[in-house]
Amino acid sequence: MGDPLPLPTLLSCALVAYTIEFDNEAGHLLPHTTSDHGATPGSGPKPWLASMVMWFNCMKYVGPDGVQLGELERLARTRTNLAGMQRWRYITITRGAGDRDGKRPGPDAVVRATAGGRKAQEVWGPLFGVIDDRWRQRFGDQAIADLQTALSAIVDRIDLELPDCMPILGYGLFSSSRLGAATFLPRSTDSDRDTKLPLSSLLARVLLAFAVDFEEGSRLSLAISANVLRVLDKDGVRVRDLPILTGVSKEAISMSVGFLEKHGCVTVEPVPPPGRGQRVRLTTRGHIAQQVTSNLVVDVEDHWQTTRFGTDAVRSLRSSLEPIVDDGTAESPLFAGLMPYPDGWRADVRTPDTLPHFPMVLHRGGYPDGS
Q1: Greatest alpha-carbon span in the chain
Q2: Choosing a second label site near 140 at 20 to 30 A (CA), which of 17, 235, 255, 368?
Q3: Is 74 exposed, middle or buried (0-12, 13-18, 19+ CB in 10 A)?
Q4: Cβ neighbours, 10 Å, residue 136
Q5: Three-state SS for 7?
Q6: Which of 17, 14, 18, 42 is CA-nearest to residue 29?
């Protein structure tokens, strides 16, 4: 038996697995287009396929008469990839009368769903109940009830207005409070404490709360430190091996390595002969950063136990997650729900050896592994 997984890793593995299962089912039901597979058969609109996050940060709140952009962001508590959702043919935008010429519409602009967007709403909305039921069947009613209770006990005491999903990562792949990332407001007294949230949203809010606390004390994001920085060493790791070791996409790896290299934490250099390709090697600064961020994760979890939420609440959360996640690798029970449909795009992608230790939600479509 190895050391227990960090709490954010347990949360991430569960959330990423849920999201991939959700996305696989949505892609099976929704007429769509992808870069490698083209358009699905049949007539009618076929928007570019996107992930579950795009429901929570956009389509959930676009009603039959549309919604003003400012109201959309207030309801979602986070920004969407507005240009992407237009380009992928989910929404149209009518600029407000007071909008000045510029790249981004103002808060009075009206967002409306396209025909393809409305079809996506019909598919996405009911799927949370479907996936929640699958998890009850797979892991047992009591196990999922215990997990929901443990998550809700934390969510009810979070003092920030957090979204129901992980936000699209900003500059440096930060989740919050940095350039390009979200800033979350204090929670209001009339917030949705009594609203029944799907399992994915409970997981996301607790994980995001952890990321906020971690990033307040770190110069590196939890996304970078938990995934890429974690697997590096002073001898170097081949770039081509990083997606396998971390469970995140080549694009997310490239962004992470670029940020680490810019800040002096790694060097990228040729693999020594007779090897081929590039390797990423920790510098002395990177080795220190690896130790500091690893210790900070432990410190935040300790703070949650001793001060913020209490030992019983955090231990209950751990005990409900650990049998579901196990070690987060291909041996984990979570992988039972990750088999893609034969016609899905993930059927042509190598199954990862591990789930990400933090979701890599990018502008590329909101997929949890940065795909």
Answers
A1: 64
A2: 368
A3: middle
A4: 15
A5: helix
A6: 42
What is the rounded CA–CA span in Å between residue 177 and residue 217? 11
- Each residue's pLDDT, cut to its tens digit, for the chain (371 residues) gives 468 999 999 999 999 999 999 999 999 999 999 987 888 988 889 999 999 999 999 999 999 999 999 999 999 999 999 999 999 999 999 988 767 666 778 899 999 999 999 999 999 999 999 999 999 999 999 999 999 999 999 999 999 999 999 999 988 999 987 655 667 888 876 555 556 899 999 999 999 999 999 999 999 999 999 999 999 999 999 999 999 999 999 999 999 999 999 999 999 999 999 889 999 999 999 999 999 999 999 999 999 999 999 999 999 999 999 999 999 999 999 999 999 999 899 988 888 889 999 999 999 899 999 98
Please give the C-alpha separations between residue 301 and each of 14, 64, 104, 292, 308, in angstroms, as whole numbers. Answer: 18, 43, 39, 14, 10
d(CA 272, CA 279): 9
Neighbours of 98 (CB within 10 A): 9
Residue 90 CA to residue 55 CA, distance in Å, equals 10
Q: In this structure, are residues 346 and 340 in contact, taking their beta carbons and an 8 Å threshold?
A: yes
**Long-range contacts from 298-301, C-beta under 8 angstroms, 24+ separation:** 298/6, 299/217, 300/210, 300/213, 300/214, 300/217, 301/6, 301/7, 301/210
Using CA atoms, how far residue 160 sits from 108, 164, 180, in Å, is 25, 12, 19
Quote the tokens at residue 17: 């697995």
Residue 87 backbone dihedrals phi, psi, to 5 degrees:
-65, -35
Long-range residue pairs from 278-281, CB within 8 A, at least 24 positions apart, any chain: 278/238, 278/239, 279/236, 279/237, 279/238, 279/239, 280/228, 280/232, 280/236, 280/237, 280/239, 280/242, 281/232, 281/233, 281/234, 281/235, 281/236, 281/237
Q: How big is the chain, counted in residues? A: 371
* Alpha-carbon distances, residue 25 vs 193, 216, 325 (angstroms): 29, 36, 21
- Whether the upstream peptide bond of residue 274 has omega within 30° of 0, thus cis, is yes
CB 342 within 8 A of CB 27: no
